[in-house]
Amino acid sequence: MKGKVVLLGTSSAMPTPERNNSGIFLQYKGKGFLFDCGEGINRQIMKAGLNIYSLDYIFISHLHTDHTLGLTGVIETLDMHDKSRIKIFSPSGIGDFLKCFFDRFYTPEIKVDTKELKLEDRPFTVLDHLEFNIFAVRLNHLVECIGFSFVEKPKRRFIKEKIEELKLKTEDFKILREKGYIKKDGKIITEEEITEEVKGFKFTYIPDTYKTDNIIKLAKDSDILVIECTYLDEEEKAKKYGHLTLEYILEIAPELNCRKIVLTHFSKRYKNPEKFGERIKKADAGNIILGEDFMSFYF
């Protein structure tokens, strides 16, 4: 197991007794990534048994309070744990948001690096790491809003049949690492000839948005897609307030080609979203599930 994705909040607009406001924690090889930080996320991280000190990056989709109200609390907790630095990626305005709090209420010792992103209609790179990339794309909400993808970089693995066919031994692999090739029976064999590329894990988060092709551009072929599903089938409300319906998600699901689609951001009008489950069952969409707080997915 390399990591896990934990849902920390699955309600829209305001928390309910059963569901907190938006937040998703991704743990990958000791590094922590937080996608959105609604009210109460600080406590949700603790309740989930996650290591808040591992948090290195925070990605804010947009500045509505149900996605940002918990941010200052998380920063203060990190500061109290002597974390030296945290990096925050967001649409424009996050700097002013934090400055207001820091100037008037609390000045942390932790270094808070903010990067305000220029939105684009094609997936663009937010963070390029040795082992992964974070991509983003503009969404279609009432304010500037961004969807994010965590994509593990592909790796190469040896093809067992090729190894057996060439009868390679331990010393051959040592030479291969040193020189980039080996000689076998008068032939030069490169690593590419005896390995194959393996696709890395892909997680995508689609927060508040109305219909847009950018969803598919970013989320296609994800292993896990967490996507907002504020309404069941109320198309007029979805268009007015910039959200998605289950009907639209069912429509685009085949093109998304995601291994698992997890619905979140349910309107408080649905005390129990059992009708969502009934519609999913009727559509025979076995890869779509209803998200709940503290639901975890391992990879």
From TrEMBL:
<feature type="binding site">
    <location>
        <position position="208"/>
    </location>
    <ligand>
        <name>Zn(2+) 1</name>
    </ligand>
</feature>
<dbReference type="InterPro" id="IPR013471">
    <property type="entry name" value="RNase_Z/BN"/>
</dbReference>
<dbReference type="InterPro" id="IPR036866">
    <property type="entry name" value="RibonucZ/Hydroxyglut_hydro"/>
</dbReference>
<feature type="binding site">
    <location>
        <position position="265"/>
    </location>
    <ligand>
        <name>Zn(2+) 2</name>
    </ligand>
</feature>
<keyword id="KW-0862">Zinc</keyword>
<dbReference type="Pfam" id="PF12706">
    <property type="entry name" value="Lactamase_B_2"/>
</dbReference>
<feature type="binding site">
    <location>
        <position position="64"/>
    </location>
    <ligand>
        <name>Zn(2+) 1</name>
    </ligand>
</feature>
<feature type="domain" description="Metallo-beta-lactamase">
    <location>
        <begin position="199"/>
        <end position="266"/>
    </location>
</feature>
<dbReference type="GO" id="GO:0042781">
    <property type="term" value="F:3'-tRNA processing endoribonuclease activity"/>
</dbReference>
<keyword id="KW-0479">Metal-binding</keyword>
<keyword id="KW-0540">Nuclease</keyword>
<feature type="active site" description="Proton acceptor">
    <location>
        <position position="66"/>
    </location>
</feature>
<feature type="binding site">
    <location>
        <position position="141"/>
    </location>
    <ligand>
        <name>Zn(2+) 1</name>
    </ligand>
</feature>
<keyword id="KW-0255">Endonuclease</keyword>
<feature type="binding site">
    <location>
        <position position="208"/>
    </location>
    <ligand>
        <name>Zn(2+) 2</name>
    </ligand>
</feature>
<feature type="binding site">
    <location>
        <position position="66"/>
    </location>
    <ligand>
        <name>Zn(2+) 2</name>
    </ligand>
</feature>
<keyword id="KW-0819">tRNA processing</keyword>
<dbReference type="InterPro" id="IPR001279">
    <property type="entry name" value="Metallo-B-lactamas"/>
</dbReference>
<feature type="binding site">
    <location>
        <position position="62"/>
    </location>
    <ligand>
        <name>Zn(2+) 1</name>
    </ligand>
</feature>
<comment type="function">
    <text>Zinc phosphodiesterase, which displays some tRNA 3'-processing endonuclease activity. Probably involved in tRNA maturation, by removing a 3'-trailer from precursor tRNA.</text>
</comment>
<keyword id="KW-0378">Hydrolase</keyword>
<comment type="similarity">
    <text>Belongs to the RNase Z family.</text>
</comment>
<comment type="subunit">
    <text>Homodimer.</text>
</comment>
<dbReference type="Pfam" id="PF23023">
    <property type="entry name" value="Anti-Pycsar_Apyc1"/>
</dbReference>
<feature type="binding site">
    <location>
        <position position="67"/>
    </location>
    <ligand>
        <name>Zn(2+) 2</name>
    </ligand>
</feature>
<protein>
    <recommendedName>
        <fullName>Ribonuclease Z</fullName>
        <ecNumber>3.1.26.11</ecNumber>
    </recommendedName>
</protein>
